[in-house]
From TrEMBL:
Keyword Transmembrane recorded: yes
Keyword annotations: Membrane, Transmembrane, Transmembrane helix
TM spans (from-to): 23-44, 56-75, 82-103, 109-128, 135-156, 168-189
Annotated protein name in UniProt: Signal transduction histidine kinase
Organism: Ornithinibacter aureus
Signal peptide range in chain numbering: none
Length: 396
């Protein structure tokens, strides 16, 4: 069978989980980097103030929480969820409030001895996994409020005000930027997954179309041979051209099943030449071919589909029309760029209002040609005949 690519089957790794994994690794790296910056100041922090034991506890809690958050990101392969983010924020707020006791006022900014400000900023950056804006806003608000309480006491003169304002606006600026940036990445990843799923669906539909194109015409010809065989007239009443065409279609089916395109693939791109080639395959029909008005009309990628559709239409004529005359006409349009191919027979005809089209007309003609901008018109009158017209107007 035809081997399909990862993009066709949709079996490759989805973009969204990979994006979430990358964001989770970013958060883990952020927390570990903050911890690495903190640790060199631990000894100096223990030497400051009168609360050595409480200071040691705050450092231990901050270290454990940073390591645990990084581990959660790595294990979950995504940033922490809402529950963990709430716990993380609560711990950070607690550390800030305890810092009012353990960290001297003059060391609360510009020093890793007062690690609480930088630590709370890394926690704010870890909240990117909380996609509910109300919950995220409440958590950021709690961190900003605690941080304000922590740094406001350093204001002793007007010169200290810019420092405090800068401390608070650092979180108010960077945290939303990170949150919106991650949201954009996730949306892009989701769009990529949806595009991949759409491409996979189109590829499956195209593969199904190729299968129908490879099998339908061949099975129709085999039905003719089987019906003739049932009448005991295969040798005497079946035209040799049917045998040749049946062998050709059988080779196409075998090529498709073996992994090939299942179609000729080398159809002429001159419309007149294509019509003439198709006509030679139906020499058993009372067929008049009038291609000269299409001489020099060039087909593009639609050539193979047009050829498949014409074969299907003529096979239907052979099977059902019981016609005494069939006209295959091709021309370049006069009033507008484009072309038209008409197949007319004087056979039994049918009522188009009451007829359900089979695979040959519905799929290999109507559905297959429509994406190329080719309109198919079917006119038929019972007892009079049928006309099928393929028209392409302009450059579509």
């Amino acid at each position: 069978m035809t081997v399909m690519t990862d993009a066709q089957t949709g079996t490759d790794a989805a973009t969204l989980p990979r994006a979430e994994r990358a964001i989770g690794l970013f958060v883990a790296g952020l927390r570990l980097a903050t911890l690495a910056q903190m640790l060199p100041s631990l000894v100096a922090a223990l030497d400051q103030g009168e609360h050595r034991a409480l200071t040691a506890v705050t450092w231990a809690v901050a270290s454990v929480m940073a390591l645990a958050t990084a581990a959660v990101c790595v294990v979950r392969r995504r940033p922490p969820g809402t529950a963990w983010a709430c716990l993380d924020t609560a711990v950070a707020v607690g550390l800030i409030l305890v810092g009012l006791v353990t960290v001297p006022v003059e060391l609360r900014t510009g020093s890793w001895i007062g690690f609480q400000s930088a630590y709370s900023l890394s926690v704010a950056g870890s909240l990117v996994g909380v996609r509910d804006v109300r919950i995220w806003g409440a958590l950021i608000g709690a961190l900003v409020a605690a941080r304000a309480v922590y740094v406001l006491p350093i204001i002793s003169t007007a010169a200290d005000v810019p420092t405090v304002v800068g401390e608070l606006f650092t979180m108010l600026g960077l945290a939303p930027l990170a949150w919106f940036g991650v949201g954009t990445v996730l949306r892009i990843a989701q769009d990529a997954d949806e595009s991949r799923a759409y491409a996979a669906r189109l590829a499956r539909e195209d593969e199904e179309r190729k299968a129908r194109a490879a099998i339908h015409n061949g099975t129709a010809l085999m039905k003719i041979l089987v019906d003739q065989g049932a009448l005991g007239a295969v040798d005497s009443r079946t035209p040799s051209q049917v045998w040749v065409q049946a062998a050709t279609e059988l080779n196409r089916m075998r090529a498709y099943l073996a992994g090939g395109p299942g179609q000729a693939g080398d159809e002429p791109h001159d419309l007149a030449e294509l019509v003439e080639n198709i006509a030679t395959e139906f020499a058993d029909l009372p067929l008049d071919v009038v291609p000269d008005l299409a001489r020099g009309t060039t087909l593009g990628s639609e050539a193979t589909d047009v050829a498949t559709a014409l074969r299907s239409i003529l096979i239907n004529v052979r099977q059902h029309a019981n016609a005494t005359r069939v006209v295959l006409h091709a021309e370049e349009l006069e009033d507008t760029p484009g072309w038209a191919v008409t197949v007319h027979d004087d056979g039994v005809g049918f009522d188009t209002r009451e007829t359900t089209y089979g695979v040959g007309i519905r799929t290999l003609t109507l559905d297959q040609l429509s994406p190329h901008g080719i309109e198919t018109t079917i006119d038929s009158v019972p007892g009079v005949g049928t006309t099928v017209t393929l028209t392409r107007e302009g450059d579509r």
